[in-house]
Amino acid sequence: MIYATGDTHAELNEIIERSKPDGSVWTTDDKLIICGDFGFVFSAADKNGEYKDDAKLDYIAEYLPQQILFVSGNHENFDRLYSYRDVPLYGGIAKEIRKGKIYLLKRGECYTIEGRTFFTFGGAYSIDRSLRKEGVSWWRQELPSPEEYRRASDTIKKNRSFDYIITHTCPERIIYLMKKHPDFHDAELTGFLDWIFTEVDFKAWYFGHWHIDEEFYNAKITACFKGVYAIPDISKQ
Fold it and tell me: Fewer C-beta neighbours within 10 Å, C or N terminus of the chain?
């Protein structure tokens, strides 16, 4: 089964304690998609060239049965995240964080997982950027590059229809439905997602970032935070 959840921010308890909606135990057949701010690739190297996050990543890879897939959020170390190697995964290209267990789903890619197609596009603006230090606690790559927008547009032109969409932030129209105000720094990204909303045929969309669990458009759009959501197998509908 495939499931979606929200930001985990490098907290082991957050990922360990998130249980399946039906209360059953996780298995090696399960896949958990985290909608950005996975956060376990964040720390800078120490004086010995080691990363304190590695112990947590090793723990997840060894002791959690489910495969972890995630899109980028805004609280990720992008220099380090992008240093991982590209590998083929589910018909697309992903960053391999831990072989067989933890992967970054890249911006603008299409993956076919258990017979279902997923379009992925991570990223968002850090509103607390002024309190952070570039290259240490925030990175410009948190917002998509022109190349990533082009890749996404090309993927959409080739397909026009996906079963599911996974992002970190959401289309601008959803921000208003949440009774929030869009940040002008995010305008290009949320506007692009709004364009996807109108141009692409999809069954459901899952996103994180806003730290709420709420459904919109009769559950077609789901904001994920602490909740874990089973992604329906459309072949059985």
Answer: C
Enter the pTM of the model: 0.96
CATH fit for domain 2-236, picks 3.60.21, 3.40.50, 3.90.320, 2.40.160: 3.60.21
Task: Give dist(CA 210, CA 212) in Å, integer.
Answer: 6
Render each residue's pLDDT in the chain as its tens digit; 237 residues. 999 999 999 999 999 999 999 999 999 999 999 999 999 999 877 777 778 899 999 999 999 999 999 999 999 999 999 999 999 999 999 999 999 999 999 999 999 999 999 999 999 999 888 888 998 889 999 999 999 999 999 999 999 999 999 999 999 999 999 999 888 889 999 999 999 999 999 999 999 999 999 999 999 999 999 999 999 886 555
Domain extents in the chain:
2-236
